[in-house]
Amino acid sequence: MVDATGPYELIALSAAAAARAIAAGEIDPTELIGAYRARAMADELNCFTWVAPERGPGSGGDIAAGSSPAPGESPLPGTPLGGVPLAVKDLFCTAGVPSQSGSRILEGYEPPYTATAVARLQGAGATLLGKTNQDEFAMGSSNENSAFGPVLNPWDRARVPGGSSGGSAAAVAAGLAPWAVGTDTGGSIRQPAAMCGIVGLKPTYGAVSRYGMIAFASSLDQAGPLTRNVTDAALMLRHMIGRDERDATSLRFPEQIELPRADRLDGVRLGVPAELSSEGIETGVLERFHSALALAQELGATINTDVMLPHAPHGLAAYYVIAPAEASSNLARFDGVRYGLRAGDGQDLVGMYTRTRHDGFGPEVKRRIMLGTYALSAGYYDAYYGRAQRVRTKIVEDFRAAFEEVDFIVSPTTPGVAFELGEKTTDPWSMYLNDALTVPMSLAGIPAISIPCGLSGSSEGKGPVGRGLPVGLQIAGPAFSENRLLDAAYALEQAIGFDSTAAHV
Amino acid sequence: MDVGRGSGRDDVVEYEPVIGLEIHVQLSTRTKMFCGCELSFGEPPNTRTCPVCLGLPGALPVANAKAIHFGLMIGMALESELAPRSIFHRKNYFYPDLPKGYQISQYDEPLCRGGRLADVRVHRVHLEEDAAKLVHVGESGRIHASDASIVDFNRGGTPLAEIVTEPDVRSAEQAGEWLRLLRVTLGRLGVSDVNMEEGSLRCDANISVRPAGSDEMGTKTELKNMNSFRFIERGIKAEVIRQEKLLARGEKVVQETLHFDPSSGRITTLRSKEEAHDYRYFPEPDLVPIAVSEEMLDTARASMPELPLARAERFEHDPSYMLDTEVAKTLAFRTDLGDFLELRRPESPDEARVRANLIINELAPRVGTDVPLADSMVTPDAVVTISGALMRKEISIGGARQAFDILVEEGGDADAIIEREGLMSAEGGDELAAVVEAAIAANEDAAQKIKAGNPKAIGPIVGYVMRETQGRADGGEVTRLVHEQLGV
Ligand SMILES: [Zn+2]
After folding, report:
1. What letter would DSSP give residue A51?
2. pLDDT score, position B7
3. How far apart are CA B462 and CA B477, in angstroms?
4. Which residue in the set A211, A217, A353 is minimally distant from B60, CB to CB?
5. pTM of the model
6. What DSSP line would sit under B258-304, residue for residue?
7. First to last CA, chain A
8. What is the pLDDT of residue A54?
9. How far is CA B447 from the centre of its chain?
């Protein structure tokens, strides 16, 4: 609760608390935006690829009724989010604002329209604070694949923030933004949230419109919140969801998203499948995970370790066929003809295509385009893409069966804590392994949240200041179980008592 | 006569062409296949575009329900099996007229399978989006050696139905005739403008030849994008001859994609089999499957008009019409003519025949093809009046023609016009006989020649009658009377 009588730190307010304080007239949204803008401008972690310019007072007058406010402008009063600033991952199209998806090939590209998810948040009163750095086209688990340079982890600047929504996660963890929108294809919200000690939620596939998200893998991409706490995640999600006529795969969410209130987990059945909680996981991560399970039991939950996801170990292999296959097609539009980079002018058509894509894409993007092109080629389709889709179906069935036995599946979010910059860049497979615990939920299209469950005390996770590095707890539920999922996460969050502002710079 | 040429006739192998057709039909929906842009009809370049049909980053397709409805109607007209569930695929290749780097099409789960129209079986019908239009600046007009290429995205994303036939066509003429039937059928469905010059109907042909009577299939070539019935027939003919010559020389036909240049009559290679694309088809993840509900089928069924083939049959065999085959076909294949006839029920097959002939031979040529007959100044009742008057011999065909001349210009009541213009055959019956008698008397020479067995000599006598009656006499009736009076 905000103490309205005394001086308080604007930056210390969570997004939900700030929105309440604005609504109560306790703080001025313009001051809040200004405070965050100053911090974002002074960003030393390379979180932002663009920060909204300052707007003079009254410049909001040209906002047409019913439209969303321009970047950096104060929203109309009385909106639910009251002007709380919002950091947005670079790959969301934002009208007239650079939207580059972390790629050289889209450097300086300003789309003519705004993504539905962002427009809905703006419509609810969020103010666009800036665009955040990411792995190029969301391909990466460390944010080292950005054309605009790596993002540093605020807990330890020698380490990566995770990826691909690394800029969003680091900005929230460092207090450069109250909250941020990210996207998750195989873990790109949950994994950086875990590594930066914040909350990240990947909603049910179809819950949030993908219209205006620069696509990586269409059947997996899903937008979601990166926030300091579970309540903020619920608040942001409330204003993102809903059927969008412009996205054929979007779905009507069956209920309103409520702010979580549960303080107990009585009767809640948690499943801990061996496939997601044993092999290849750092001991420091496992320690924190098991403490979280003990806390859950104290809150009344039961733990079921017999539940199985037998096909989950094949998820990563299937994912690294399906996602690159879709990406190889999604990225074909970057051909230098209509927008973005064009190189090789004066050469013939194929020469121009080749030069543009050679110069415009980074090595990881090229690798995945080649992987995906190969997987879809005549003669290989069944062996790769067809087979991967069959694995995907098996994983969907695994989860369906598991949710007959338990309410939620829990696991560590990542096998390890944030690793050092450059540590895994030469070995793509070890990098891909970061997604092993998050990919199965993406393939199944089900919601999953990562909340911080403490700091790793193990040697490989020890930060330079000796305080350890954040560990994430992942909770996954059936499709459209977001309200229950948020409640469970909230109860655990209160019990764990993690300070998500500890890394504020 | 070159005798030598005929001497080896017995050794010459007779070849039989085997032809399959692929027809792209632009559907006349209000909006494009996957976005809300209205279809373009010659607007300035790139004015009918949006993020979706420009392939901008982040834009997503949404399938046009009306296009699916039209697809189902085409399937019903072609007696296809309608898939309860079909999906879109991405067909991947790079070209500047393809802004996404892939075309959204249907692959192994099309909307319609099988079917038949007249003597040609249908293999499948599927939905897809049209490419944008490339305009090559420079002398050649082709992308190679052009100075620059300009892309107009107005056409990009226009809904297309692709109709693929089985290889049942055996000649260029048959191809042309079948395509004409397909064209009137689609036009009758109202799903397309079916205008070949404007590209709303485009045809590719897969052509091979084989020894007549053989069941084997020869190597086929694909002749691309012919945009008139005449070019299709000429192109197929030229390609069949080219293949026959190759085989007769003992050479092989190479599988390739060809272009027919109608101005030179030459066939050139567009690309060889080696250059063929690997389209890397995979299910379009941005779209959900097309699930055809009972309701959609009911709506499509309710929208189905009587098709031209069925209508021609009816005009020919329905006891109230009993029209000649060609007349029935003409009326059925030009929907507005058939509609105009059917606006008033015929009193008898004779009346139907007279009115059908008036519509085809008198009314239609006067109105032209720019407007449907129903939208002309002439009412169906006017035609009924004139055909009745003709049958009762109250007016001559000449009088009828004069009445049509006026009706097409001014409209109005036919009786009133006949009255006002004095078109009644006042000379009908005995009076006309009197004029004929006078005409024979004034042309003795001609009368003698007719009697001597030269019917062509009748000219001056008919001319006399027409002058006397100001052209209102019926030529046939005059001839009859002349013969009657001369006893021939
Ligand atoms: Zn459009």
Report:
1. E
2. 43
3. 10
4. A211
5. 0.88
6. EEEETTTTEEEEEEESTT------EE-TTS--EE--HHHHHHHHHTP
7. 23
8. 82
9. 48
pLDDT of A167 strictly over 60: yes
Residues B267-282: pLDDT tens digits? 999 888 777 789 999 9
Q: Quickly list H helices, B392-452.
A: 397-410, 414-420, 430-442, 444-451
Cα–Cα distance, A75 to A60 (Å, whole number)? 8
Is residue A35 within a helix (H) or strand (E), and if so which, with residue range? helix A29-41
Task: For residue B351, give both structure tokens.
Answer: 């009346």
- CATH code, B431-486: 1.10.10
Pairs across A and B, CB distance < 8 A? 104
Q: What is the DSSP letter of B151?
A: E
**Which pLDDT value is given to residue B184?**
94
- Reduce the DSSP state of residue A366 to 3 states and report it: helix
Question: Architecture of A7-55+68-238 per CATH?
Answer: Alpha-Beta Complex (3.90)
Alpha-carbon distance of A274 to A292, in angstroms, equals 16
Q: Residue B264 and residue B231: Cα distance in Å, rounded?
A: 11
* Coil vs helix vs strand at B456: helix
Q: Tokens 């096909």 correspond to what residue?
A: A311
Mark yes or no for CB contact A246/B60 under 8 Å. Answer: yes
Angle at CA of residue A188, ends A182 and A192, nearest 5°: 90
Q: How far is the CA of B153 from the centre of ligand 1 (A)?
A: 9
The string of pLDDT tens digits covering residues B47-83 is: 999 999 999 999 999 999 999 999 999 999 999 999 9
Nearest chain B residue to A385, by CA? B282
Residue A419: closest CA among A462, A367, A386: A462
Place of tokens 């009924």: B384
Q: Annotated catalytic residue: which of A14, A74, A89, A202?
A: A89
Q: Which residue has the tokens 């690793």?
A: A419
**What is the SS3 assignment for B240?**
helix
- d(Cα B321, Cα B325) in Å, to the nearest integer? 11
- In this prediction, residue B146 has a pLDDT band, given cuts at 50, 70 and 90, of low
All structural domains of chain A with their residue ranges: 7-55+68-238
Express the helix, strand and coil content of chain B in percent, nearest 5 each.
40, 20, 40
Contacts of A384 (CB under 8 A, 6+ apart): A321, A325, A374, A375, A376
End-to-end CA distance of chain B: 47
Catalytic-residue membership of A164: yes
Cross-chain residue pair A329–B92, CB shorter than 8 Å: yes
What one-character DSSP code corresponds to residue A385? Answer: I
Could you give the CA distance from residue B76 to residue B79 in angstroms, rounded to a whole number? 5
A89 part of the active site: yes
- Rounded Cα distance between A265 and A261, Å, is 11
Indicate if A209 belongs to the active site: no
Q: Give dist(CA B226, CA B237) in Å, integer.
A: 13
Structure tokens at A180: 């941020």
User: DSSP for B124-146?
Assistant: EEEEEE---EEEEESSS-SSTT-
Mean pLDDT of B367-388: 90
Say how far apart CA B145 and CA B128 lie, in whole Å. Answer: 30
What whole-number distance in Å separates Cα of residue B126 and Cα of residue B110?
Answer: 5
Residues in chain B: 488
Establish whether the linkage from the previous residue to A165 is cis, with ω within 30° of 0: no
What tokens does B236 get?
């197929």
Q: Residue B431 has which token pair?
A: 């009076």
